[in-house]
Amino acid sequence: MSVQTGVRPVHVLAAHSDSDRVAEMAAQEHAGGRHVRAHALAGADAGGGDERARLRLEIAHVQGAVLEALADDGAMLLVDERASLAVPLMMRVLLDERAMGWEAAWERVQTATACRLGVPSDDPGPFWTASVLEEECPRIIEILYEINRRHLDAADALRPGDLEHRRDVSLFREDEPRRLCLGALAVVGCGRAEVAKPWEGRLARLFTGLRDLRDGALQARPTPVSHRRWLVEASPSLSAALTLALGEGWPSEPEALARLETLAYEPGFRGAFRTARRSAREKLGAHLRATLGLETDPDALVDLRLGSFAGRERLLLNVLGLVREHLRIAAGGWTPPAARTVVLARAGDPGGREAQRLLSVARAVADAVNRDERAKAVLRVAVLPECPEPVVRLLTGAADLSNQPGTAGSGASGVRALGLAVAGAITLGTRDGTVRELEEAVGADHLFLFGLGARETRAWRDGRFYRPQDVYAIDPLVRLSLDGLTSKRYAPEPGAFDWVRHRLLDPHDPWLVLADFGAYVHRQDEALAEFADPRAFTEKAIFTLARARRFWAATREPGP
Fold first, then answer.
1. pTM for this one?
2. 484 falls in which pLDDT band (50, 70, 90)?
3. Phi and psi of 380, rounded to 5°?
4. Which residues fall within 8 angstroms of residue 416, CB to CB, at 6 or more apart?
5. Domains and CATH numbers, the chain
6. Is CB count within 10 Å lower at the N or C end of the chain?
7. What are phi and psi of 231, to 5 degrees?
């Protein structure tokens, strides 16, 4: 690898589905004059559903990154909990292949690694059970046990006799079965660690305890986002309006955006904001016309769902919402308060068979809506199976509503949710991942929040309280929408979408789609009604843009 003389290269390691986060980190490190090598972990379908096969692939990916970092004396930046396997894998190479002693090897790992994690997920995956690790990689778990022993000795020295604290900060969750906690491993094993807040429940005890033990090496920091990518480059018309209002220097001075909280109440600036957004919608409309033959209204709300469409992101919630709205329009007697252009766009993880199945359902619903003359003036739907960076910029600049319906506690909401907020899109979503960061920064009044929280989700799932058949029987919205989706109106042939019904009515559905459906469509209606009031919606968007400045990557320190 060719690197700059005297500049330590950085190896950024993250999940494939979090490619935007890798891009954000890589851009920040490049800005510091470093050579950056990005490593993507296996996608969601790796191993074909076989957990042992997936673990073997995971170890192979991480080990490759570790060997490259050791070969060029590079630093490793871990931006995903799964990447924490780099710690024991690097220890194994140093101990077994380079014959270093434990203390020297540990010091090398600490000086070579740093982690920047998003809001901790309370989801039970992707933790590895101790029994599987013992069978598949005995040397690695032997090293993990030794790391944990030394770590817990330090915990006992800090708080002698406090068994609850010892249990809270252990690298292994003493559940049934016993599991490795990857987030804790990343924090303990890296020389510097940053973890986004808020921390809640058991995770609050874990990370607060780890912060006390690490003596300043663990810090709570906002998830960094490249405002130049998401705002300056994606929204040139809005950037021009900001320059007129704030002066030329605002892209380098995030605090300049604080003035927007006053300008939000001035009709002149609100008008300039709306004009800039309309210009971006026109550009997106031209792209959709050229690529899909889809005519859209530049005055319609652009409701954007941008993601990898992994299961936890709940694309089916978006699809069912579209079915419900289309059926209302088709039945007659109801007109939406404003027109809406829905864009379901896949970016990041290339996806596998599951993503393709979901996209086929989304396309079928989109085709049915777009063929219906009764819906033409008020609802258009675009499905984009692939989104290269120029298209992501078009979508970002035009988005009025950032749709983030992932299961709370699953970590589905990633850096894209923050990037869209930095560009001024209002968020409609669950309290998951970065949406919780946005709630702290922007305020709940400036978001459209809905659905179960992380603790409720975990309780419903682990306590087996979730009975989707009851939801289907009680809630007419659920029944109408699910029956409609599997009907000949949308299904290309009889039974084609019956698998959706079986999945959503399964009490073991880990994503609890039907549990949140009623709340989702009600908040969707509220967002559309508010868009019909230009002043209220624009003020909320400007406040989002102003307060999301805390996530600007330009305000961050360099990496490891």
1. 0.88
2. very high
3. -125, 145
4. 20, 306, 307, 347
5. 10-220 (3.40.50.2000), 227-555 (3.40.50.2000)
6. N
7. -115, -60
